[in-house]
Amino acid sequence: MKLMQTHGWGPMSTRSLARVSPTCGTHMSPVARPARTSIGHCRGLSNNVMVKNDGCGRISGLRCRAHGEGGVRTLEGDVLGALSTIMDPDFGMNIVDCGFVKDLEIDSGSGRVSFRLELTTPACPIKEEFEKSANAVVSGIDWVTSVDVKMDAQPVAPLGPEENRPNGLRRVKHIIAVSSCKGGVGKSTTAVNLAYTLAQMGAKVGIFDADVYGPSLPTMIRPEIRVLQMDHETKAITPVEYEGVKGVSFGFAGQGSAIMRGPMVSGLIEQLLLTSEWGELDYLVVDFPPGTGDIQLTLCQTVAFTAAVVVTTPQNLAFVDVAKGIRMFARMEVPCVAVAENMSYFDGDDGKRYQPFGEGSGERVQADFGIPHLVKFPIDSRLSAAGDGGKPLVVEDPIGATSQVFQELGACVVREAAKLARVPKNACRYDSEVAAFVVKPPSAHTGEGEAAAYYLDPATVRRNDTSAASINEWTGEKMLSDGDIPDDIEPMDIRSVGNYAVQIQWEGGFNQVASFELLSSLPRLSQEELEERRNTPRVPSLDPLI
Fold first, then answer.
1. What is the reported pTM?
2. Which uninterrupted H or E stretch holds 403?
3. C-alpha distances in angstroms, 32 versus 86, 93, 121, 145, 397?
4. Do 284 and 206 touch, CB atoms closer than 8 A?
5. Which of 264, 304, 387, 395 is exposed most, by the fewest CB atoms within 10 A?
6. Chain-centroid distance, C-alpha 415
7. SS3 label, residue 439
8. What DSSP character marks residue 393?
9. Distance CA 81, CA 301 (A)
10. Residue 8 scores a pLDDT above 50
């Protein structure tokens, strides 16, 4: 049986998420909790899981104590359930959720289990305790006869792994969208000042101006070199730099603003974003153009956004358009972490606070869509004057009252991005015993209760691909029939894409990005179907999928 790449999950701890240690993600001894027999709580990661069988395609000999997700008993579920009782106190999650468990192999005939624990540094001071705890909990499974644990280390990767970040974005840790879906509300001003605020907080930052029709960045910053440079050998674009922040805008291409159709603009934006050599960045702030059309969708589909900041004004008229943008991000499963309400108020000489444009739009957005933070900005003539002068206000007056509000917004973004980075990354895995995907989206771990895992047929997932390779973007017609996809197709690799989708590599080399929204809409395998799959020999397909 061939080696399969799988992904799983583990229970969230009720502890608060502590800081991440620079050594190994923990500075305290690992905590082992009593093992549970319900695999509703046995959700582990195993990067490469092999279950050896009796040669007939059927798992033989041993039965599991624990029940698999949804009540189906699996050997893998037993092992991952045991390991999910070992907690990393600093991450506030078990070692399975942390992604430490790799290369799990199970020999069902002899009861031998082997796996690798991959910590975030070889200098971890308590790696011996992790090794002892892992040996103890897995040895405690009644069918296990021997356990082989190997210790390893790998530096912490950004939210989107480098191999999932295309081209120049490989070393960008977090990509933050700033959007309003309505012009004239101060979105670009917010985006630029947020970028420089994050830089003042000690981060490495870049800003990408995605508005080709009316680029604002060339007006708001004045770098010494005002034209983008291209490496003739690598064809990579070198961003301009001002006050330590890298910037890319069509306005720096020496072409002014563009006059072209939507599809051409989408391709141009994608080229500017992906071929720019951003280098190592903690945050890349993307200033979205107004609207919810092709350009915005292309951006969301091209890269894995960490989060979005929505900009509005107090009027109810602004709410209508902003709501459209939030629904777009929700559809693409990009979490909106803050609402920035511009022109919210001013403080008069009489000591009173006035709201000349009304109030309530920001609160309504926050309440209707559950966005955690609302930051209100005062009417400040210096804000627009500084932008028009090519020097953002937070750079010109870093300790002023408005700059302090930007510090508040920057802190919100940093905190929420950190929380999202610690959301369990392994919400989908492939269970070779039942030849099915096991899915539990990260949104189930938000504290709103435990959601049950569900199983999907791999062929069904592949047949419902929505990319341009499978769907004609002009007519909406499917380009492949269901018969073109083998019923016994298997994934070669599964990886998380941000916190809203998974990337599946299929036999034959095809890569599919499937959002959790899509996966949740597909028909699920029943208990009877799962039992039948577990007891039926499977003969792998000999013809690769083209």
1. 0.55
2. helix 401-421
3. 4, 11, 21, 21, 51
4. yes
5. 264
6. 15
7. strand
8. H
9. 34
10. no
